[in-house]
Amino acid sequence: MAANSLARSLVICCSQRSFLYHFPILLHSRATQRRHPYLWPLSLRYSSTQFVQESTEGDAADVRSRLNVVNILEERGLLESLTSDSLRSACSDTSLPPLRVYCGFDPTAESLHLGNLLGIIVLSWFLRCGHKVVALVGGATGRVGDPSGKSLERPELDHLALDRNVSGISTIISGILGRCHGAKCFSILNNYDWWKDVKLLDFLKDVGRFARMGVMMSKESVRKRLESEQGMSYTEFTYQLLQGYDFLRLFRDEGVSVQIGGSDQWGNITAGTDLIRRILQAEGAYGLTFPLLLKSDGTKFGKSEDGAIWLSPSLLSPYQFYQYLFSVPDSDVVRFLKILTFLSMAEIAQIEKEMQGPGYVPNNAQRRLAEEVTLFVHGEAGLEEARKATEALRPGAETKLDWKIIEAIAEDVPSCSLPYDKVLNISLLDLTVSTGLLESKSAARRLLKQGGLYLNNCRVDSEAKKIEADEIVDGKVILLSAGKKNKMIVRIS
Ligand SMILES: Nc1ncnc2c1ncn2[C@@H]1O[C@H](COP(=O)(O)OP(=O)(O)OP(=O)(O)O)[C@@H](O)[C@H]1O
Ligand SMILES: N[C@@H](Cc1ccc(O)cc1)C(=O)O
C-alpha cells in the first residue's frame, strides 16, 4: 500500500472539499465563528468524519474529570509560552466541551525521535485531562521545509522518501497514542490532503493578502536566515503561512482551537493565530509551546541532527532506547522524570528524596525513567525485550538467550562472524581464542578453572567442552563471556 494512503487509512479520512469551496462557507459563517467554535452545532463543527462524534454521556464524564492541563504542564516544566493566559481558564471551563488540540510533525525522517516525543507527551496530557487531540503529519509542509532553527535550507526529499516518512511517523504516533488512550481518542491527518488542491492564485487572494510582510520578516526563523550568507529562498519564507493556514483550516473545519509545539515553533504557531484573527475574525485560537529537550552539549535533539534517539524500533532497538535513558546523568534524571513520564509529582519528589538518602541504590531513578519511557514508546513487549537484554548483559546473568535478545545487545558487544563448521563441534577454549575474546588457550583454561567462562550465559566447567548444534541460538549466533564484562557475539556466516 502506498505510504500516503496508509497514513490516510490510519486516519479516518479528511474532507476532500477543495480550497476554493471552503471560502464561501468561511465568509458566510464569520458571524458564527466570532463566537467560540464549540458553540457551532455538531454538524457544522465536524465537517468530516475524523472525530468519533462525542456522545453527551461521554462529554459529561470528560467534564466531570477535567483537570487544568496548562497548570500540570507548567508544574512539570513542559510549558514555555502561551499566546494568551486565558487558555488556562478555557481548558478547565467545564461549561465548554473539551478542547481540540493539534501538534504537527514534518516527515523529514522515517521516525520521530526523543525530542519529538515531547509533543506526543503533551498531547497525551491533554487527553488525560479530557480533551481531544489531532496529530498532523506534514506531507505538504515537508516538501517545503521549516526554516525554524535551521541555518541552511533543507535538502529536498523525493516523493518516495516523503511517503515512507509519512507512513513511519504515522505508525509511531498511532502506536503510542493508541496503546495509551485507544484508537478513537485521536486522529492523524496529513496536510497534503488539503494542500494538494490549493491553487496559487486562490492562496494569494485568500490567505496571502492577510499576511503582513513586516510581521513575517520579523519572525526569528526568517531574521536569522536573512542575516546568514546563504540567505533564504522564497519557498522557505512561505513556510509560516502554510503552517498558519493549517491551523486556520483545523480551527474552522475541525474545531481545533489549540496548537502546541516546541519553542522553535512559536513563530509558525502565531502565524496561525494571526491568520485566524484576520481572516476569520475569530478569537479563541491558542498556541502553547514547550521547551526543547536539549542534549548535554546544549544542542537540540533533532531528526536531521546527528545521534538522534529514534522512537522507531527498527532504527534503535527498545534495549538501546532503554539504555540511553538508563544512563542519563543524576543531574538530569529528575527533570526527565517530570518531562518524559506521567509519574505523579509526589512520586518523583519521593524518588528525588531517596536519591539523596544513604541507602540509595545507584541508578534506581534512571531505571524508573527508562522503564516508564520505554513502556510508553514501545509497549509491554518492547519493555520486556529491553529488560531481558539488559539482564543478559548483566555480569554473571543467567538469562536464557534467544536470537532477539542477542540482536538487541549486538550494538554494545563486540562481534565476529565464523562459518558454521568453524563453530560446530569446536572446542570452547579454541573458540575463545579464534574469535579474539581471549589472547591464548592458557588464559582461557585459567579463566575456566576460576569459573569465569560462559557460553550463552551458562557457566562452563569442562575443558573438553565443544559447541553443540542446539547451543547455536536459532542456528545463527552464540554469546561467549570471559569474566563478567568481556563478551563476544559469534555470528554464523
Ligand atoms: N529537541 C526537541 N525538544 C522538544 N521538541 C522538539 C524537539 N525537536 C523537535 N521538537 C518538536 O517536535 C515537533 C516536530 O518537529 P520537527 O518535525 O521539525 O522535528 P525536528 O526533529 O525538529 O526535525 P528537523 O531536525 O528535521 O528539524 C515540533 O513541535 C518541534 O518543536
Ligand atoms: N513546522 C513543524 C511541523 C508542522 C507542520 C505543519 C503544521 O500545521 C504544524 C507543524 C516542524 O517542523 O516542527
Automatic annotation (TrEMBL):
GO molecular-function term, one example from the UniProt record: tyrosine-tRNA ligase activity
Domain of life: Eukaryota
InterPro entries attached to this UniProt entry: aa-tRNA-synth_I_CS, aa-tRNA-synth_Ic, Rossmann-like_a/b/a_fold, S4_RNA-bd_sf, SYY-like_C, Tyr-tRNA-ligase, Tyr-tRNA-ligase_bac-type, Tyr-tRNA-ligase_bac_1
First-level EC class: ligase
Chemical reaction(s) catalysed: tRNA(Tyr) + L-tyrosine + ATP = L-tyrosyl-tRNA(Tyr) + AMP + diphosphate + H(+)
A GO term from the CC aspect: mitochondrion
Location of the protein in the cell: Mitochondrion
Transmembrane intervals: none
Keyword Zinc recorded: no
Keywords, alphabetical: Aminoacyl-tRNA synthetase, ATP-binding, Ligase, Mitochondrion, Nucleotide-binding, Protein biosynthesis, RNA-binding, Transit peptide
CDD domains found in the cross-reference section: S4 (cd00165), TyrRS_core (cd00805)
SUPFAM superfamilies xrefs: Alpha-L RNA-binding motif, Nucleotidylyl transferase
Any Pfam family: tRNA-synt_1b
Any single GO BP term: post-embryonic development
Annotated EC: 6.1.1.1
Domain Tyrosine--tRNA ligase SYY-like C-terminal: 406-488
Location (main, coarse): mitochondrion
Function according to Swiss-Prot or TrEMBL: Catalyzes the attachment of tyrosine to tRNA(Tyr) in a two-step reaction: tyrosine is first activated by ATP to form Tyr-AMP and then transferred to the acceptor end of tRNA(Tyr).
Family classification: Belongs to the class-I aminoacyl-tRNA synthetase family.
PANTHER family (UniProt xref): TYROSINE--TRNA LIGASE, MITOCHONDRIAL, TYROSYL-TRNA SYNTHETASE
Name this protein carries in UniProt: Tyrosine--tRNA ligase
Organism: Olea europaea subsp. europaea
